[in-house]
Design a protein that fits this description.
By secondary structure, the chain is mainly alpha-helical. It is 62% helix and 0% strand.
Length: 72
């Protein structure tokens, strides 16, 4: 899925998705040969989790640490 498709699916801005990735709130998203983000099912799962955790009031710092621990 493109960033536009993910943005529309979850009703969040493309800038928010870029921020989530840049800040480490979701793992890095794969890219096409042309450098365009190519969200896979696993990536959208991370997006869903980030949205849910932020809605629950989890601080960004905790979310970033959680993602790091999960990737180890």
């Amino acid at each position: 899925m493109t960033i536009k498709e993910v943005s529309e699916k979850y009703n969040i801005s493309q800038d928010t998705l870029r921020y989530y990735e840049r800040a480490g709130m979701i793992p890095p998203v794969g890219r096409t040969v042309g450098g365009i983000r190519n969200y896979q099912e696993s990536d959208t799962g991370w997006v869903e989790m980030a949205i849910c955790m932020r809605s629950a009031g989890i601080p960004i710092e905790i979310l970033i640490e959680y993602v790091k621990l999960c990737q180890e």
